[in-house]
Amino acid sequence: MRLNENSRFISLALGVFCLTLGAAVLLFSLIEWICFAMKFVGVIIGPSSIAIAIGALLLLLGSRRQI
Amino acid sequence: MDEVIADCELRIADSSNANGEPPKRGIGGARKRLSAIRNSQSAIGYLLAAAGLIWVLRDFQPVQLRELIANLDWRRTAPAVVCDVMSYVCQGARWRLLLEPLGGLTTLRATQAIYAGLFTNEILPMRVGELVRAYLASRWTAAKFVAVIPSMVVERLFDGVWLAAAIGLTAMFAPLPKVLIRAAGALGVGVILAAGVLCYFVLRPPNAKRFGAGPLRFVSSLLEKLSGDLRGMARTREFYLSLAVSLLPLSFQAVAFWLVTLGCGLQLSFWIGVAVFLIVRLGTAIPGAPANIGSYQFFTVVGLTLFGVDKGAATGFSLVVFALLTLSPLVLGLAAMSASGTSLLKIRREVQSLSARRA
């Protein structure tokens, strides 16, 4: 699927947001886990991995050239 | 400082008159009205700061502060200061990315302008430092003042996006007070609206109908200019990169705040530390007294007491964290201002001569 310029802009912006958010949640949960032995790490890994996957997908979609 | 603001307005007016339109009448009157509004805002800011400080320092014994400083863990507070500096370096990197279409500004220069602005914010009320950094950037890139403004608008929008996301995220880990969740909801709505406006400006075709005419010609031409600059900025790779980088300043500041809580012996979990930091950040979002003195201490104490910290300990911490995280912008900001080859006094003189030439 190829996107026009406007869809590319929205797709790339949302992709960057989701990817960064997912990565940040993973990183900060890791800090909490190391410093304070957080118990529910598994609950965090799932949603943040999904966010990273959605972000990567949107970036991939947005990085395709215009028709 | 009023002259700097006046010059910024002058530059805006200059750019709107670039097509040979005569200068608008009534600018002097508008300036007087703006000045009166600014003065009353400053007075309200000082009053609120004084009220906040009185509430915080009531019942507080100086001995508590002395004990806190004596027992300060420097292994935790020193990295906090480093994180604070890093947050501004990241902000500089982000601004450099957003200013890429104007070109010519390195990360070091952008960070220097940010520190010069921070220094001004530390000594003057109402965050006029934002105008100082825009002024310096416009000088160093040889761009017009209005050309720099869209990058700062986008910066604020990115900050809002990440702040709203951070509050939502922190709510999952820490039991946030209902007031903060309501404030986050309002912020979220504001961010979505602002993002919608940004998308409208960016996605709007260049040959679309003009915003308006007649008495609103000045505002219309300013919006046209901003829209064009935003369109140019948002279609670059650097724009998306700066969205990702925007999380770093907030993260470094949150980590710095949390490290100081540990250094002061408050064993708060990371997410509780982040929650208190976000309360402070939201509380001090409205410009007030220089360096947000008063409101910073007030919201720190309110945030900590919400999580069960004793008010005396919270007050001591609010004073220590304020001193630690204000010191570096003050010292480095002074250095940045000196290294810029200008000073507030010089800027004032330069602007006076500009105004005289214009007259």
Quick gist of this model?
Chain A has 67 residues and is an all-alpha fold.
Number of domains of chain B: 1
Strand tally of chain B: 0
Low-pLDDT segments, ≥5 res of chain A: none
Number of strands of chain A: 0
- Strand-residue proportion of chain B: under 5%
Bin the strand percentage of chain A.
under 5%
Largest inter-chain interface?
A: A-B, 18 and 19 residues
* Sequence of secondary-structure elements of chain B: HHHHHHHHHHHHHHH
Q: What is the domain total for the residues of chain A?
A: 1
**Average pLDDT reading of chain A:** 82
Main sheet properties of chain B: none
Question: Helical segment tally of chain A?
Answer: 2
Oligomerization: heterodimer
**Overall form of chain B:** globular
| Helix percentage of chain A | over 70%
Give the overall pLDDT of chain B as a whole number: 82
**N- to C-terminal distance of chain B:** 20 Å
N-C termini distance of chain A: 10 Å
Question: What is the H/E string of chain A?
Answer: HH
The tally of helices of chain B reads 15
Q: What overall geometry of chain A do the principal axes of the alpha carbons give?
A: elongated
